[in-house]
Task: structure prediction
Amino acid sequence: MLGSLKPMTGTFAALAFLGAWGGYGLVLSGEWRPTVDALASGLGFAITSIEIRGLSEADSTEISDRIDAARTGSLAMLDAEQARQRIAEIPWVADVTVKKLYPNRVVVDLTERLPFALWQDDGRVKVVDRSGAVMADVIQTRHAGLPLVVGAGANARVQEAVALMNAAPSLRPKIRAAVLVAERRWNLMTVDGIEILLPEEDPQGALARVADLQQSKKLLERDLVAVDLRVSDRLFVRLSDAAAEIRREQMRVKSGAKKKGADT
Result:
């Protein structure tokens, strides 16, 4: 009996040695991860479900790609922290957690950054959040109604710009964009192409004057190019070329009529 056990003991020892040596070889060659991954998948731990919660702006395909379940097929070999870090790099993502739920589920909980405005600089338009951080440089149809701010550095002051555009509610439908000038003060552009030049100090007060004149005189419905309020207690308007020519002709007619009356 004891004699028969000796050959079996020797066989087990040989197998253990070969298995250990094979495992050591896999470690040295870097091939152990695919082997363990395949083994874990075969034991029922293959990833079969990726649940993404809180998704509205980000691309679900991009999130799934960053989990990289195609390369890491088993839940056991998935590095949840690495997957979380890769997903956190997506511009739309404010916060994210990645959880492994055995035997075969991955759950991703997202908090997305919300689009706040469009920022145009050097001819390019981008979506930014409330902090001014760029979220995307591709404008979707759903972003068309966002406020537009223009100019170098305007994204960093986007909340200020939007508050200014909303400061006179009666004018808001007429305002197309806020333009930061020399990173010091704002001009507003109307949908009809009139430029409202605001002072550096108390631009809201100056805009309130425009709102009063719009209500009483229909100022922004005239043939104007610009309304200049940069000088305190003064308001200057610049007529369009056509309106200016009509104005000059009227002045010539008026001047001629006065001269004719004086001669008679």
